[in-house]
Every structure is written in C-alpha cells, then in structure tokens.
Design goal:
Layout (H helix, E strand, L loop, with lengths): L7 H20 L2 E2 L8 E2 L2 H12 L1 H18 L6 H21 L6 H29 L4 H10 L2 H32 L1
Antiparallel strand pairs: 1-2
Helix pairs in contact: 1-2, 1-3, 2-3, 2-4, 2-7, 3-4, 4-5, 5-6, 5-7
Length: 185
C-alpha cells in the first residue's frame, strides 16, 4: 500500500487507522489486576502493528500515536500517555527495520515473524514503561522492577494476541484492498 506518504489517500487512511485503533481499545478492553498501573487486554497494539505494516513507518506510527495516545489522553491515562506514544515510536521503528531487512516482502512467513516481533517488542517496552510509571509515583528502582515484572500478564496476553491477529488482519485487509482497488478501475 505504501504510496506517497502525503497523498490524500494516505492521509485519509492514516486518520481511519487512528480511529480504528482508538475504537479497538475503547470497545473491547478487559481490565487485568496488576501491581503497577491499570493494564487491560485490548486490540490497539495489533491494529497499530497492522497500520505500521500497511501504511509504512511514518503514517502507521502517526496512526498509532493518535489512536493509542488519544485513548490514554481521553480515558484517565493522560499522565502516562507520553510513554504510550514513545512505545509506538519504538514498535514502529523496530517493525520497520525488520520489515526493511525482509525487503518489504509480505509473505505469510514474514508477516507472521513481524507479528511475533511486534508482540515481543511490546513486552519489552511495556516492562520499561511500568518501571517508569512506578518511579513516577516514588517507588524505588528495585521495587519498580519487581512490580513491573509481576504486572506483565496483561502485556503477555496482549502480545500473544498481537502475534496471532496481526498476520490475520494484515492479509484480510490487504486482500480486501486489492478487491476494492480492482473495482475502482
């Protein structure tokens, strides 16, 4: 799909993905008890990974920042929304580097690998974010590290769903886009 990043079509798709990411979190979220923060299971990370793969690094990252960061800003997570936005930048950068090393070949194997990479990256970034959140409220570093580790179950579940759902959604969207584009011609 990667056409001109500033074309009207790309900008509209970026906005559409941002809205879908926001709605993907808002509609389906399951709170999970944790020592640090208020984590919940949702599909925002999966949708962000799909946006990055489909729209490219810049526009996918913008969609993720608006969707995930916007959700945080509007739903009681404003104090740490900047951390969510940083996570999107890290995930977008890593996914793009790995996809680039695959020469942007979107074979089933490569997209499955990218889904797993997105999930594993999210585990790492969320662990770091949890440490920062705990430090922000005055916890010592050792306690913050332990608390962040104990709070990882929701992240692991989200990461597994990201690894599984990213390839499924990517190929469904890619195939649907091809059908729509053929009908337009």
């Amino acid at each position: 799909m990667r056409k001109e990043e500033n074309s009207l079509q790309s900008l509209v798709l970026t906005g559409l993905f941002a809205a879908i990411i926001y709605i993907g979190i808002w509609v389906l979220r399951i709170p999970v008890p944790a020592m640090v923060g208020r984590p919940f299971i949702h599909f925002g990370n999966t949708l962000t990974a799909v946006a990055i793969l489909y729209l490219g690094c810049r526009n996918g990252m913008i969609a993720g920042i608006i969707g995930l960061g916007g959700f945080d800003l509007l739903n009681g997570y404003a104090a740490t929304s900047w951390l969510t936005m940083l996570e999107v930048i890290v995930v977008a950068s890593i996914l793009t580097l790995v996809f680039k090393s695959m020469h942007y070949q979107d074979s089933k194997k490569n997209i499955i690998i990218l889904g797993i990479v997105a999930g594993v990256t999210k585990i790492f970034t969320t662990y770091c974010v949890s440490i920062v959140e705990a430090l922000m409220i005055g916890t010592s570093l050792k306690v913050a590290c332990i608390g962040a580790f104990i709070s990882l179950p929701a992240t692991v579940i989200n990461s597994i769903s990201t690894a599984i759902c990213t390839p499924l959604l990517y190929f469904a969207l890619r195939d649907a886009a091809r059908v729509v584009m053929k009908k337009r011609k």
